[in-house]
Amino acid sequence: MQKKQTDKKNENDVRSLICEFLRLFYSNGWVTGTGGGICASFEKDQFLIAPTGVHKERIKPSDLFTVDSTNGSVTCSPKAKTLRLSECAPIFCEIIRQRGAGAVMHSHALPTVLAADISSEKDQLLISGLEMLKGIANENNKSQHLIPIVENTMYERELCEVVSSALRSDLFTKSFCLLVRDHGAYIWGKDIWEAKRHAEVYHFLFEATLARKQLRLLNGSAAL
Q1: pTM recorded for the entire structure
Q2: What is the mean pLDDT of residues 15-26?
Q3: Residues catalogued as catalytic
C-alpha cells in the first residue's frame, strides 16, 4: 500500500510539473498555436504525454495520457473524451527507447526552425565556440557539438524511421536534440529537469548561432 501511495504521489508531481513547464514553454514562444508538447516518465516505461490540438498553456494534470513507451500503447486516457493523444507520441517513444530518455519536449520555436536552414550540411548542424555548451550533459565550451537534422514529413508518425536512423548514428551520440527541417526540434534528458535544462540551453545555442550567422553575413562572410 505504501508503495502504491508513493507511486501515485510521484505521478501527481510529474503531472503538475508537465503543466507548469508547458506554461513556461508557452511564455517562451516554444509551444504556441497548440503546437509542440512534452512527455515525462513517472515510473519504468510509463510516460505522461500532453494531448494534441489544444492550447498547451491551458492543459491540466488530468488532461494527460499515460503511455507504455515499450510499445506506444495508451494505458490510461483522460476523462475528457475530446482529447487526443499527441501526434508526437511515436517520436517520443523512439527517443525514449533508443536514448533512455526520461523526458522529451517538442518545440516549434522559430530559432529551432531557422537553425536547420543555416547549416552548411544537409543532415547536421555544428555548434561550437559557445560557453553555453557546458549546459549539455558531458559537453564543455570547447566541444564540437553535432545535432542531427531530418527532413519533415506530412505526418509526424512518418518521421519514426528517419528519426531512428539519426539516433543510431555514431555522429550524434552526444546530442540531446534532433532538428526536423521546417518544423522544430525534439529535446530530451535523463529526467524532466534535465530535459528542461537542455531545452533552455539548445534554444539559446540556436539563437546565438543564428545571430552569429547574421553578423558574419553583414560583415561580408557567408561562412557559418
Answers
A1: 0.93
A2: 98
A3: 131
